[in-house]
Amino acid sequence: MANKREDYISWDEYFMGVAKLSGLRSKDPNTQVGCCIVSQDNKILSMGYNGLPSGCSDDEFPWQREGEDPLNTKYVYTVHSELNAILNYRGGSLEGAKLYVSLFPCNECAKAIIQSGIKEVIYDSNKYDGTTSVQASMRMFDAAGVRYHAYHRTERTVMIEL
Ligand SMILES: Nc1nc(=O)n([C@H]2C[C@H](O)[C@@H](COP(=O)(O)O)O2)cc1CO
Ligand SMILES: [Zn+2]
Fold it and tell me: Which of 10, 61, 81, 89 lies at a CB distance of 3.0 to 4.6 Å from 33, suitable for a disulfide?
């Protein structure tokens, strides 16, 4: 009888991989973020990436980071990957779920994460560590009992033919 494959991807690699694949859908020229929400028993519940709300054209709204008028920057329009993943879920409660995200959540997403009942956040990059937003997220997560920890990258890279 054949033995089982041994080089299959781990749960963590699977969920962070799905989060990063989702991020490839982002139209943001500077930062693409992907998110994958998973139940306590490792079922994928939802996914999301940073983008504009439905009906707001990717070609008509700005993708600029800076501008004299904030209305001409992306920041007032984009929905973050984490909020999109929470809002994309149509199945009921996210109580006790885990959230995999390629970039540490901002303070606004932290509020939504806490209020939706998600209890664990696994992030890859934390390139905005030390900012007011990240500090506020950590303070709220700590107070609300939401655990957060960095994803431990493995040696694996995956090439998918599409
Ligand atoms: N956790 C996050 N999830 C996200 O989806 N985003 C999105 C919002 C913007 O579209 C982009 C950040 O743009 P920039 O400031 O790095 O050019 O990533 C940002 C963060 C960081 O807090
Ligand atoms: Zn956010």
Answer: 81
Residue 135 lies in a domain: yes
Number of domains in the chain: 1
Q: Which of 78, 76, 73 is nearest to 62 (CA)?
A: 73
Ligand 1 atom closest to the Cα of residue 134 is 22
Q: Is 153 in the pocket of ligand 1 (CB under 6 A)?
A: no
| ipTM exceeds 0.95, yes or no | yes
Ligand 1 atom at minimal distance to the Cα of residue 84: 5
User: Which positions of the chain have pLDDT values less than 50?
Assistant: none
Nearest CA to ligand 1 atom 16: 31
Query: What is the Å distance from ligand 2's center to 110 Cα?
Result: 7
Q: Residue 70 falls within a domain, yes or no?
A: no
- The pTM of the whole model exceeds 0.95: yes
The residue whose C-alpha atom lies closest to atom 17 belonging to ligand 1 is: 30
Inside any domain, residue 105:
yes
> What pLDDT was estimated at residue 159?
96
Residue 82 annotated among the catalytic residues of the structure: yes
Residue 1's pLDDT is 84
